[in-house]
Design brief:
heterodimer; A: 323 residues; mainly alpha; ABC transporter involved in vitamin B12 uptake, BtuC; B: 377 residues; 2 domains; 0% strand; transmembrane transporter activity (chain B); transmembrane helix (chain B); sugar transport (chain B); membrane (chain B); transport (chain B)
């Protein structure tokens, strides 16, 4: 049973670490499928986490925090949308700008409001998302193999984790089985055709960007209200970029996004767990290599050595209506 | 708005519009200062005073500007060929190895003027090498340069962490840095230059790398506007199809451009390593690679614009430290906000005020072309 225990521990922290990645990567999926590239996932997540930390502390309510995170993140998305859709600016430049603006202003505002040196006040139990015990956890724990898996791996996560994993099939359904999804994908592949059909390309893209904002906000709220007890300076720590990498790794498809995020989450969990233990066969792996692995894998994928990642065809190109 | 923008006189295109964009960015930053409950005017006063108040302060301002000239040029060169090199941060970081190797090898044997050229070569070589792979992948395998350079920034961070932890740290030392260089690895300060203006550099690390930065800026101007290679780069930046039609080898230009860009970013490493700390420390780049994006956008990718833009960011960095000292609620993170706002307004939203400015300028010059031109805008 020792091996099972080990497996459960690793799997559990994999799920914990993957959750924000899944939410952020799905956020990126919606906007990039609509033809608006977004390297500002990091900034939106951080902004969301900050808003969640502040509001949850003031209102003493996790739900209020979540709502604030979504509002802030959507507003940031709209700035990105305004720059890249309406003003037809460079989408990469706009994303970079948002990352910086958020990275700086969260620290300045947090310090001005709470004076706690780059963090929001620690949240009490009630102002955070609590772990949910699924029914029959205790009764089933005795069942060999499946019992502990159910009790320790499937049960006992926060609501946002379940939401993240539910968003995977939901996103698939929205993108591939609804009219909205069809149009969203079309607007990212061939906006001219969508325009000819009498659908507003601008409005479709804005909706994609707003979806991105909502999901990024939830990802941010997860960081400050579920994974931690409050916001800390720079707490996203590159997760937005890892999510971006996962999105590319998954070739812009919802279910592979989940697996890519689980893989990257697992690498992270593994690196934390085995920092100083030598592994069989390979010996001691430098922790830095483990940390770099998601990025290296993404580059290898982008190089076309494991399949080919083809982005949405109209991605990054502002739409100009012909006159 | 689908037709090209009206042709504007040079002083509007390269003077007025960037200035308006910059002012808006600062106005928004001022709002943040207000939100924090401080006076923006007081902050501005401390910033100007902190950046120019004394010879020493000016020395610091120009020291930071030196760094940003390199990273700004790096981004600009890539821009001209239509490439967005976000990887300046990583390229500069890895280039630190080149500088450190040259210094660790020769600092006890040679005077600085022998070590310096070798260190320049090392920095350029390592920077270019780190940019080569993203360039090659873009050229040969079509992987998007923005994404690969972002990934390479993270890989560089891990690599350097490893290098300083396991390879370049002296035995028995706890802090993540190389040993301190001897005289050969220490660049002289530019006190004579400051003395010509009756100023003293004081403790500021304003050093000869500044002259190298100016030379690099001139070199970039020659490269882009006076050589065949530069012409090919600009052609590709304007229209890849036209470049292909003209028989310009796209893959070759991409790889060469990225390597030049990486080499320029890499030379930034000379300034802090040989000019200030005399050793390579963990995270010595401190976001300068990203500042380069703002500098290149503000300077409109022209060396003559990049130098003042770099000095402006030097002012922000040095003056920002003074603000943080005088007004504790405004930490140095304020600079990061301003940097982001400049990137937003001078970069992504650069055309936001153009129609209004076009109308205003043409109304003033009033030659009856107003209607046609405004329609064009």
């Amino acid at each position: 049973m020792d091996f099972l225990q080990l497996f459960l521990e690793l799997a559990q922290s994999t799920v914990r670490l993957s959750t924000p990645l899944i939410l952020a990567a799905l956020a990126g999926l919606f906007t990039e499928r609509a033809g608006v590239f977004d390297i500002g996932l990091e900034g939106k997540m951080l902004g969301g986490a900050f808003a969640a930390g502040c509001v949850a502390f003031v209102a003493q309510s996790a739900m209020a925090g979540l709502l604030a995170a979504i509002v802030v993140s959507v507003l940031l998305s709209l700035v990105h949308g305004y720059a890249s859709i309406t003003q037809r600016g460079n989408q990469i430049v706009s994303g970079v700008a948002i990352n910086f603006i958020v990275a700086g202003s969260t620290v300045i505002l947090g310090e001005a409001w709470f004076h706690q040196g780059g963090r929001t006040p620690a949240l009490a139990e009630g102002a955070r998302f609590q772990a949910i015990e699924l029914p029959f956890t205790e009764a089933l724990r005795g069942v060999p193999l499946l019992g502990p898996i159910y009790a320790d791996l499937i049960s006992g996560h926060q609501a946002l984790t379940y939401l993240a994993f539910l968003m995977v099939p939901a996103s698939w359904w929205i993108l591939y089985r609804t009219r909205f999804g069809l149009r969203l994908r079309a607007v990212g592949e061939n906006p001219g055709a969508v325009d000819t059909a009498g659908i507003s390309v601008i409005w479709m893209r804005y909706r994609g960007v707003i979806c991105c904002g909502i999901l990024c906000g939830i990802a941010g709220a997860y960081l400050s209200l579920a994974a931690n007890a409050g916001w800390t300076k720079g707490m996203t720590a590159g997760k937005g970029y890892i999510a971006l990498a996962a999105l590319i790794f998954a070739k812009w498809r919802p279910v592979p996004v989940m697996f890519a995020c689980l893989l990257f989450g697992f690498l992270d969990a593994f690196a934390i767990r085995y920092q100083s233990t030598p592994l069989p066969l390979i010996g001691k792996v430098p922790v830095q290599l483990m940390q770099a692995l998601p990025y290296i894998l993404t580059v290898v994928l982008l190089a076309g050595f494991i399949g080919k990642a083809i982005p949405p065809r109209a991605g990054g190109v502002p739409y100009v209506k012909e006159r | 708005m689908s037709t090209p923008y009206a042709k504007l006189p040079g002083w509007v295109e390269y003077g007025l519009i960037p200035l308006v964009n910059l002012l808006v960015a600062f106005a928004v930053a001022g709002l943040v200062v207000l939100l924090v409950g401080e006076s923006p005017l007081e902050a501005a006063y401390h910033m100007i005073n902190g950046a120019f108040g004394r010879g020493e302060y000016i020395g610091f301002t120009l020291y930071y500007a030196t760094t940003f000239i390199f990273t700004g040029l790096a981004v600009a060169v890539a821009f001209h060929a239509g490439l967005f090199n976000i990887g300046g941060e990583g390229q500069a970081y890895v280039a630190g190895i080149g500088v450190a190797l040259a210094c660790l090898w020769l600092d006890r044997l040679m005077p600085w003027y022998v070590v310096f050229p070798i260190a320049i070569l090392g920095a350029a070589l390592f920077g270019a090498a780190w940019a080569f792979l993203p360039g090659w992948l873009q050229a040969k395998r079509g992987s998007h340069i923005v994404i690969t350079t972002i990934m390479f920034n993270f890989i560089a961070a891990s690599l350097m962490n490893y290098m300083l932890n396991r390879v370049m740290k002296p035995l028995g030392s706890m802090s993540l840095e190389t040993r301190t260089f001897d005289a050969g690895g220490q660049l002289p300060k530019l006190d004579w230059l400051m003395a010509m203006f009756g100023l003293s550099v004081g403790t500021s690390p304003f050093n000869v790398t500044f002259l190298l930065a100016l030379a690099a800026a001139f070199g970039v101007w020659v490269l882009i506007w006076r050589t065949k290679l530069g012409y090919e780069m600009r052609t590709m930046g304007h229209s890849p199809q036209a470049a292909r039609y003209a028989g310009i080898k796209e893959a070759r230009i991409i790889v060469i451009t990225m390597m030049i860009s990486g080499a320029l970013a890499g030379m930034m490493a000379l300034n802090p390593i040989m000019g200030e700390t005399y050793r390579m420390q963990l995270d010595f780049v401190q976001g300068a690679g990203f500042v380069g994006i703002a500098v290149a956008l503000m300077g409109r990718s022209h060396p003559a614009g990049i130098i003042p833009a770099a000095i402006l960011f030097g002012v922000l960095y040095q003056g920002g430290a003074e603000i943080a000292f005088e007004m504790p609620s405004i930490s140095r993170d304020m600079i990061v906000i301003i940097q982001g706002l400049v990137i937003l307004f001078a970069g992504a939203l650069e055309h936001m005020f153009r129609p209004a400015i076009t109308r205003a300028v043409l109304a003033f010059s009033g030659r009856g072309r107003t209607d046609a031109a405004v329609k064009g805008a």
